[in-house]
Amino acid sequence: MTVLIRDLRSDDPADAEAVVRVRRAALPFMIASPALVAFEAVCHPPEARFRVLVAELDGRVVGTAQAGFAYDSPEPGRAFVNPYVDPAFRGRGAGTALLRAGEEYLTEAGASALFSWVLDEPAHTAYAVRRGYERRRSAHFLRLDLTAGLPERATPPAGVELVPASAFADDPRPLYEADAEATGDEPGDIGTEMSDYEDWLATVWADPTLDRELTVAAVVDGQVVAFSAARTDGVDRYGTAMTGTRRAYRGRGLAKLAKNASLHLAREAGYREAFTGNDAENGPMLAINRWFGYEVCATEARYVKEVGGS
């Protein structure tokens, strides 16, 4: 049986559905929807060279991969390839074919280093090492049962107002400014400089899984000082995309306040499971999530292969 690797047909709803099925089977802790898959294929700027690849086996989509450049990194040549294979079809060459196709594409485009997230399980990490990748850091997926209890909603301190992201529909720049500052301080092995508002509008604000009613911002004197961004699959899964606080307002519990409000809104909207992800070294955010009742459900490790580049 020959594995066929091709690009996603972004205008084919059945193709997007097939990719979602694979992602949910391979990584059930991530938010996935056909609208998101179609959006990812077209939302990135040209310098990202972003592609969604799919692997077909006997006409069935059994794997997929995201490949592209970290164009918002101050370090040129940083690229990524993240393959996923339906567990029911592993061991048949789909993952290797996807990874090889992604590596060849990115290397030919001038990548100097290839990063890939790998499930922190012996078979997966051993495979990465065999392919020449070295371990860098790890991150946890966490799950919270929204049908169980949540901490009670707290009253915001004087001068702080909690508002949904939808309140910024006419001008989301205050959310962008808070996101850019918080994201710049996130631990990680690829630096990020979020300095292009139009790009943020196109890739973050326009994300079809971003739930603007469940995303909550803490506002002081008209300025967003903390926020918790929510993504949903439109069915029963809610995910925290990012929770952060502007530097001058850290240490006051404002991010926790915003996230608590968002979780309560998600439960009221009928979502049953909440997921989030944290870098293993992000102690403050892990502590906040443990306070909410989140439990680690899986761990990924970030691996890198230096490939030269031009």
Secondary structure topology:
Blueprint: E1 3-7, H1 13-26, H2 34-43, E2 51-57, E3 60-69, E4 78-85, H3 94-108, E5 113-119, H4 122-130, E6 134-145, E7 161-164, H5 173-184, H6 197-205, E8 216-220, E9 223-232, E10 237-245, H7 254-268, E11 273-279, H8 283-292, E12 295-306
Parallel strand pairs: 4-5, 10-11
Antiparallel strand pairs: 1-2, 2-3, 3-4, 5-12, 6-11, 6-12, 7-8, 8-9, 9-10
Helix pairs in contact: 1-2
Task: Report what the structure shows.
This protein has 8 helices and 12 strands. The radius of gyration is 20 Å and the shape is globular. It folds into 2 domains: 109 residues, Aminopeptidase, CATH 3.40.630.30; 156 residues, Gcn5-related N-acetyltransferase (GNAT) (Aminopeptidase, 3-Layer(aba) Sandwich). The mean pLDDT is 94. A 12-stranded mixed sheet has the order 1-2-3-4-5-12-6-11-10-9-8-7, sandwiched between helices. Helix 1 crosses helix 2. The chain has 310 residues and is an alpha+beta fold. The chain starts with a strand and ends with a strand.
In short:
With 310 residues, the protein is an alpha+beta fold.
Work out the helix count: 8
CATH superfamily of the largest domain: Gcn5-related N-acetyltransferase (GNAT)
Going across the biggest sheet, name each strand in turn.
1-2-3-4-5-12-6-11-10-9-8-7
Sum up the overall morphology in one term. Answer: globular
Major sheet size, sense and barrel closure? 12 strands, mixed
The CATH class of the largest domain turns out to be Alpha Beta
The overall average pLDDT, rounded, is 94
How would you classify the helix and strand content by structural class? alpha+beta
CATH architecture of the largest domain: 3-Layer(aba) Sandwich
Strand content: 25-35%
> If you compute it from the alpha carbons, what radius of gyration comes out, rounded to the nearest whole angstrom?
20 Å
CATH topology of the largest domain: Aminopeptidase
Low-confidence stretches: none
Order of helices and strands: EHHEEEHEHEEHHEEEHEHE
